[in-house]
Amino acid sequence: MRSYPADYELITPGNLDAVLRLLSDEPGRWTAIAGGTEIMVLFGAGKLSARKLVSISPLSELREIFEDEDWISIGSGCSFTQIRRHAGVQRHFPLLAKCASWTGSIANQNRGTIGGNLANASPAADSSPALLAYAAEIELISARGTRRIPYEQFHLGYKKIALAADELIRAVYLRKCPADSFCYARKVGTRNAQAISKICVAATGKLHQGRVEEIRIGMGSVAPAPLHLVGTERVLLGAALNDATIAEARKALLSEVAPIDDIRSTASYRKLIAGNLLEELLREFAAWGDRK
Amino acid sequence: MSARRFSLCVNGVERFVDVPPMARLLDVLRHELGLTGTKEGCGEGECGSCSVLMNGELVNSCLVPIAQAGGASILTIEGVGEQARLHPVQKAFLECGGAQCGICTPGMILATVHLLGKHPRPTQEEIHEGLNGNLCRCTGYMRIFEAVEKAACAMESGAME
């Protein structure tokens, strides 16, 4: 333990309005802490620069999952355990349930929240590719009001997000897609359990008469922020899923990813695996189309 | 920030501590309450040595600031069983040789108690997942997995008696 607890403030206002007022009165001075699975790691290591913390984990306003005919909304304070066990999420957004089950150990899933995961803005966050594949929207709230933006506009660069100093993430919104959509997700890490990804991918799609009618692919750990593979999708849309298309898609993918060497992997390995995962997902997509 | 008073229910007993709100639950248990059965391994939520149940959920106590545990019910290894009357999970770990150096054992036991609460007859996959946040550098895990299965059987037949 390399920090001195008395050097830090941690307050626990009773409700969301009180937290938003605090953030609005002293913008940039307070850091929100939810499940603590990131912040407490920095704290233990003596690397937590924020000295004034506000606990948002008890806020019931942020801890609910709502479902109606067209949408599911997941409060930012929902834990990964809550998300992966939710019947509506399992049924309509299986990729998100899967990605939640890949996020750390059971103990960390019990504490870690989706809002914390997104605010932490790691390019390796496991929930991000699924949210990109599902074209999720994200609702931000402050004392000024709320705004809702496409999730893919939330990441601005490495650890840079479109969250103002007085804002909190309130919820993630997912629009239900037709039941007969293809979906795929895979994570590659050093070990199966509890490893931070070397690379993580999720995709959804639809075929019409053997051609790609819709496809959305999200990938983690291949760029400064979670990446929506727009260029690769452009190559695929309208194309038949044959060897030539797959080769062209691989080429497009390599022109839009920009992985780095770091403690978990190397740029060249990540490029190779990104291509292999894309190929696997497209072959499964084609096989799924043949079975229908 | 100076110390504040927090109350928490530890192993069924209400306790009060005067500590800064960022004090880790792990340190409060060990240093304020003398419950040294909970171990510190990595201190960053990777190894599971400091596992306890908080309101019935498995957590790494090194990642919980005490202000977020105020009012909570905490179960530590000291509350799982007694020397004279071990919990079936503790018995099974002893009988199967699921403990060697002992540092991971309290966390393993708590993770197993949590797992069997959710899945009384766990599959191999559920056992692997339930314990995947608890690292052991001695046993190679096989005897631990056997202990979990044995405990599940013992608890099931115990429940039927």
Layout of secondary structure:
The complex is a heterodimer of chains A (292) and B (161).
Chain A (H helix, E strand, L loop, with lengths): L8 E3 L4 H10 L5 E3 L5 H6 L7 E4 L9 E3 L3 E5 L4 H6 L1 H6 L1 H9 L3 H6 L2 H7 L6 H7 L3 E6 L2 E6 L4 E3 L2 E2 L6 E8 L6 E7 L10 E10 L2 E10 L6 E2 L1 H7 L6 H14 L10 H25 L1
Parallel strand pairs in A: 1-3, 2-3
Antiparallel strand pairs in A: 4-5, 5-10, 6-7, 6-10, 8-9, 11-12, 12-13, 13-14
Helix pairs in contact in A: 5-8, 9-10, 10-11
Chain B lengths: L3 E7 L2 E7 L5 H8 L18 E4 L2 E4 L12 E3 L1 H4 L7 H9 L8 H14 L5 H7 L11 H19 L1
Parallel strand pairs in B: 1-5
Antiparallel strand pairs in B: 1-2, 3-4, 3-5
Q: Structural class, from secondary structure content of chain B?
A: alpha+beta
Largest interface pair: A-B, 33 and 37 residues
Q: How is the biggest beta sheet of chain A arranged?
A: 5 strands, antiparallel
Query: Shape of chain A from CA axes?
Result: globular
- In CATH, the topology of the largest domain in chain A is named Uridine Diphospho-n-acetylenolpyruvylglucosamine Reductase, domain 3
Helix content of chain A: 25-40%
What is the H/E string of chain B? EEHEEEHHHHH
Q: Structurally, how many domains make up the residues of chain B?
A: 2
Helix count of chain A, per DSSP? 11
% residues in beta strands of chain A? 15-25%
Could you please say which CATH topology of the largest domain in chain B applies here?
Answer: Ubiquitin-like (UB roll)
Number of individual domains of chain A: 3
Assembly status? heterodimer
Structural class of chain A: alpha+beta
**In CATH, what is the class of the largest domain in chain B?**
Alpha Beta
Shape of chain B: globular
How many β strands of chain A by DSSP?
14
Strand order of the largest sheet of chain A: 4-5-10-6-7
